[in-house]
Structure formats: structure tokens, C-alpha cells
Amino acid sequence: MEGGCMERRKRIAITTILLVVIALPLAAQEIPAGFRVERSGPFTLAWRVAGEQIEVIMAAPTSGWVAVGFGPSSGMRGANIIIGFVDDAGNAVVEDHVGHRRTAHRLDTRHGGRTNVTLLDGSESEAGTRIRFRMPLDSGDDADTPLVRGALTEVIYAWGRPGTDNTATIHSARGSMTIQL
Fold this sequence. Notes:
Blueprint (H helix, E strand, L loop, with lengths): L1 H22 L12 E5 L2 E8 L2 E8 L5 E5 L9 E7 L5 E10 L2 E4 L10 E8 L2 E9 L15 E8 L13 E8 L1
């Protein structure tokens, strides 16, 4: 009886360790010093404000695209949405979008704005996709919502189905959070 109980406990411990390792996809990856981190389920958002810029890391358990939107007024409407992915050649890509309707977004450049996001790096692994970028707090662009250092900011996030780099496809998961810049 005691041997069977010990064996069961051992299996539970191993299973728990494996689940923790698998369930902490990119959240457990190193976040550089000075970043604030917010996690919502398996989605990780890390940011730091430096001068008039914000640097952001977003990560989700997908081999598809990941996205974050700052300052939505209703659903996606009004949000400054940044979408990133790693293409089939292994190159990270980032796109600057605006939420132009409650449930729709498009490139800033198609909405009278301009691209003002700088890709810093991106990676894709079995754990998921991780994108790091920088953008101005206030781009002066009519398509972007100005961000204010120290202010509470509503953030939306989403990610696409595994293997989906087409940023026009619907998300497989989404959510929202409030962060303090």
C-alpha cells in the first residue's frame, strides 16, 4: 500500500512539474531589468517607459500572431494596436494598426496615419511567440491614442491560431487588462 501511494505521489509531482513548465510558456523567459510585467492567463505583457518612448514585450502560447492594443474606447475602436509574428523564414514582423470599429482593425497607413513602431526583436518556439518593440508615447499621429506616463491605461490583447501569420484572421484568444504606465 505504502509503495503504491509513494508511486502515485511521484507521478503527481512529475505531472505537476511538467504542467508548470509547459504552462509558463514565455512568461518564464527572461524579462530584462526595469520592465513592469502583467500576466493574464498565458499572455505576458512587459513594458518600460524611457523618455518619450515605451518599449514593450508581448508573448503568447501560439506560433501565430500576437497583438496588444492601447487605449481602446469600445472593443477595438480607438486602440493603437500592434501586431507581431515570426514569418516562415524566421523573420520577426511588426505592424502598426488602429481599431477603426468595435470589432475591426486595419493598418494605420490605411486610416490616414503612419507606421511609428520599431521592431526590436521577435522569436517563435514550441512555447509560443514573443515580440519586442518600441513606439512613442505620443506619436502625434491621429490614428494613435497618446499614452501618458504614470496613467492607468486600458489594454486589449489577442493572439491568432498556431501557424497563422495573416493579421486579418480572427483571434483564437483575447482579453483585456489595465496597466499603469
